[in-house]
Amino acid sequence: MPLRFLDGGESHGRALVAILEGFPSNYEVDIDYINHQLSRRQKGYGRGQRMTIEKDRVEVWSGLRGRKTTGNPITLIIKNKDYENWKGYWEKDIKKEDKIGIARPGHGDLVGFYKYKTGDIRDIIERTSARETAIRCAVGALCKQLLEDIGIDIRSKVHSLGEFYDDNVDIFNDEIYDIINRSPMRCYNKNIETHMKNTIDMCKEEGDTIGGRAYLSIRGVPIGIGSYTNWDRKLDGILSMAILSIQAVKAVSFGKTLELPLIGSVYNDEAYLEDGAIKRKTNNCGGIEAGVSNGENIEIYAVIKPIPSVKKGLNSVDLINKSNVISRYERSDVSAVVPATVVLENVCAFHILDEILKKFPSDDFYELKNSIDRYKEELLSY
Ligand code: EPS
């Protein structure tokens, strides 16, 4: 059965909800693990005032008996604390004079106004908001926890903010990763961290926003996940679609593709045998060849654009009164690059598990674990 979920919920509505189907039974879920992912997502330099209101905790309303999954659909809920401040808002019809017509260029405001024709940009803001990533993280965290138990580890960091780069860092070194996880910029180099923080402070002062790049690495995916047999089965295609669906992500690349001269003899990862095992001299392609995992770490960069809620204003249009105006400000974050790294981890976890389940169809966790262990053993003698 494919792994699938849908989520619903508005940024300032009652709650965010997801129903996850196809998750193996008999898996012991650690709710603290999910809540830890939710709390990691809330942190980071550049976050706005909203994060002082929310303390995201997941509630599991179905699919668990004790701590174990039953194979039934898993219903996850995160209540919005800010809902208390918006009570009444959802229950009444909006007055004409309270409708928002001024669009923020770059946000969903303008396109949503014409697409859904409710006459109020507020309806669009509520669903385009990156608040939705909280529930996607809860779904992904379940998957990420299971992946760890079958030897797949997903880690991330900030790669750049504005013009500052924290490059060439081994995130699978536990000491280094600990420093990254404690850094408000989720980066390693302290000097770069200071520059990044100063840049965010400056943007905040000027009423501006700033973007950057997130880096993700997935270790332990065995060779042969994904497929080249048809366009919609390619692992890099599937991951790219999911990553581009994360609010504010505008580009995705694998491995060193954007850094290297695109010359065949330099770019392609040469292979050799060592003690019977196939090794690579480099991992420029980021662990995926022809849409299939090649056993190396899957390395991904995602470009996070600057948030469109720019306090100093942009030229825009009042879509209700049909006039040229300066865009209105909506409370927001100055930068979403730090939380985006955590979202990226959890969003990719869902799809890696889905692809694993396609190769090793299993209803039960132990069936899955045994199939993977057997597959890895067989690979050694093939
Ligand atoms: C967001 C605006 C801000 C962010 C929000 C995304 O919320 P608010 O409008 O309530 O100030 O903090 O992100 C979250 C709430 C979250 O949990 O990540 C937006 O417009 O996209």
TrEMBL record:
In short, the EC number is 4.2.3.5
**Enzyme kind, highest EC tier:** lyase
Entry keyword annotation includes Lyase? yes
Domain of life from the UniProt record: Bacteria
Return the InterPro entries for the record.
Answer: Chorismate_synth (IPR000453), Chorismate_synthase_CS (IPR020541)
Q: Which cofactor does it need?
A: FMNH2
Per UniProt, the cofactor note for this protein states:
Reduced FMN (FMNH(2)).
Q: Does the keyword Flavoprotein apply?
A: yes
Pathway assignment: Metabolic intermediate biosynthesis; chorismate biosynthesis; chorismate from D-erythrose 4-phosphate and phosphoenolpyruvate: step 7/7
Question: Which residues hold FMN?
Answer: 127-129, 247-248, 290, 305-309, 331
Q: Which UniProt keywords apply?
A: Amino-acid biosynthesis, Aromatic amino acid biosynthesis, FAD, Flavoprotein, FMN, Lyase, NADP
Q: Which residues bind NADP(+)?
A: 41, 47
Catalytic activity, reaction form:
5-O-(1-carboxyvinyl)-3-phosphoshikimate = chorismate + phosphate
Give one GO term, molecular function aspect. chorismate synthase activity
A UniProt-annotated Pfam family: Chorismate_synt
Role this protein plays: This reaction introduces a second double bond into the aromatic ring system.
Q: Which HAMAP family match?
A: Chorismate_synth
> Subunit composition?
Homotetramer.
Family the UniProt entry places it in: Belongs to the chorismate synthase family.
Protein name (record)? Chorismate synthase
Organism (species): Clostridium simiarum
Gene name as annotated: aroC
